[in-house]
Amino acid sequence: MTKIKYIAVFIFLFARPSLAGDIFELKSGERLEGKLVSESNDEITIQTKETKVVLPKSMIETMKIEEVHILLSDGRKLRGQIEKEDDQSVVLRMKLGALTINKMDIEELERRIIEKKPVIGSVDSGRKTGSDKSEIAPIEWPEPVGKLTDREVEQIDWHATYYIQKNEYKKALEKYQEILKARPKNILALYGAACIYSHLNRHSKAIFHLRKAIAAGFIDFDRIKKNPEFDAIRSLPGYAEIIEKEENYQLHAAKTKLRDLKNDFGEGYTYEINEERKLIFATNQSLEVLERMKEHLTKLAEIQYKLAWDYKPSYFITIICPDKKAFRKKVPNKELAGYYQHCGRYLICRDIGQTLDHEFTHALHYADMEARRIDAPTYIDEGFATLFESCTFRADAAEPRIFNRSFDPLRKAACRGRLVKWKNMLSLSYTQFHQYERSLHYDQSRGMFAYLYDTGNLKKWYENYCATFTRDSTGRIAWKKTFGNPLESIESNWIDWLLSQRYERPKLKNWDSPDLGVRFENYEDAIILYDLEDDSPADKAGLCEGDILFRADEKPIRKYNDMIDFLNSSTNTAKVVFKIMRGKKEIPITVILGKNDD
């Protein structure tokens, strides 16, 4: 599997320079195009079309850098790199710094391509830029007093939100202070406290907590500027100073987050920050797989905003897809394939399949709930996540699938009278949902939301739920308002719908059929590979997580069941040629099928 060292991507907010034709060939065989803008002893910074990329020199094979030679009308000859260019002038970066040159003064301009290898421990003169724009004044953080689990922090935060809804601001402030004693850098509590202090006209306290919230990582300045709670402090010098340093805070937060990720996972990963989507990635996958992951999540987010959410995250969400060893170190519970932790604004998954889609849905749902100041019960949270974890992805969009592997067990439970009564499902606590009959609870919550989607009522139901949340957080009123019937009648109609569905059941692989050592699921008119096992037949042949497999020995593979049929008809040690799409390349890969030892 192709792995690269790391990429750290920062989004700079000042005007982007026009891109030169610099080319960077990596030792992994991958290639980047952009513009070299700075260099230090061990890394270089590249401006691409979308982002700024910081690469360690150790992963670069060669650099092809565009250099310009300029002859001025006064006879001077200059050499360097064009840092910025428009119709009137060029900014030329040279050994002694940058110089702005009027194009009317240029007699000749010659562009040359210089090919060279990066030298670790050496800086090419003139390439190291000025002061670090991400520097901000240091903040003294108090030592934590006591401990709170992530779940306890979230519960206290929801209590604070409840008091704010009741206009009991001093009680809400007490809840935020309770969090800050144990977690001095908690973003939610710091920002919430800043809002309350401003509302109570305690101006210096409001600015102090707002500055700390931003330093801790709350960098949604658009939200800060529009928040009416800060109207009381907008004319004060302290607030103006914060806004003036917006770029500094953005860069500081990016560097801080990347430094934390590197400390956790080392240099065997790709790190990238996407400001437009407010996403931070940390993964051991190749650049091609990372690009596909971003496109995949973009489609998933778009269908969810169409069918459910109105509010996008106002903060960065970190998506971590580590290797198996690192994942198990972070997540010792072998029953968990991943989770989303809202308190830390990150999700971690062992693969890039359904688990990633499930946890990413949680992240988007929490952002919408936070903006609306609601706290949905677990059946709603898991209902949305399990619905969107099974989508059909096509070239231009995604679409939830009514049927997945949980549908058959759910229908069998309905036939045997084992379903949970809706009145009980709606009132299950988080602990109750995840303990007794856990699997059935997941299947049933997905079935309820698949019913909403299939009847065209998903968006309508969620809007009704949000509108009636303060009167009924369970959703009973929303169900009745959406369908115009009592809950018991809706439940009866749902069971009839459940039993009437006709669908193609997922097939099972024969116990003695060959094993690939990789999981797969439907993806457009093919299957996508994920959760690759080390030293498996798939791994030994060079298949990678994220590969799109569409043909096996000239037989088309358009869906999950096609692959199961192919494996069931094959023999151990058989040599098979799979055709895959990796990035934009179609690649044939020969695999020697292995024995299933399960």
Note down, in words, how this protein is organized.
This protein has 598 residues and is an alpha+beta fold. It folds into five domains: 8-116, SH3 type barrels (Roll), CATH 2.30.30; 150-244, Serine Threonine Protein Phosphatase 5, Tetratricopeptide repeat (Alpha Horseshoe); 251-372, 3-Layer(aba) Sandwich (Glutaredoxin), CATH 3.40.30; 374-506; 519-592, Pdz3 Domain (Roll), CATH 2.30.42.10. Strands 1, 2, 3, 4, 5, 6, 7, 8, 9 and 10 form a ten-stranded antiparallel beta sheet that branches. Strands 18, 19, 20, 21, 22 and 23 form a six-stranded antiparallel beta sheet that branches. Strands 11-12-13-15-14 form a five-stranded mixed beta sheet, with helices on both faces. The two termini are 24 Å apart. The model is unreliable at 1-20 and 125-134 (pLDDT under 50).
